[in-house]
# Entry
Amino acid sequence: MKTNVKFYHAGCPVCEEANSELAAALDPARFAVEVVHLGRVPERIREAEAAGVKSVPALVMQGRVFHVNHGAALSDLKR
Amino acid sequence: MKTNVKFYHAGCPVCEEANSELAAALDPARFAVEVVHLGRVPERIREAEAAGVKSVPALVMQGRVFHVNHGAALSDLKR
# Structure
């Protein structure tokens, strides 16, 4: 069974780069990556926060949060 | 041919987590990951800097730098 990974982003250039280069580089044999665009589904911001996400882009895997560079703070997405 | 990726770290807990969870999650069919412990090979700090690394842990892939969370600034490793 594959491990679920969530990649949260907001469509910013920093996010897109992390998506196309890093999230897409994960081993598809072991990981199922769900890409969540918080600008389009702001109702999932709370879920990201609960997972410990402070800024995007961020990868959440196995309960751990990896903030990748810095595109936008999660708080900025709520405005 | 596999794409070379460098994972720079300094042995800190934040680094170790990123190494075991994220760097190890990359697709081995497409990427060859070299793990570089800058605390042990400080002579490679310059190489990391030249690639654009500001802090560790960081992944360098295809000319792009992905700073992952924040373990230590590169400048702190030179002291």
About this structure: The helical segments of chain A are 13-22, 45-51.
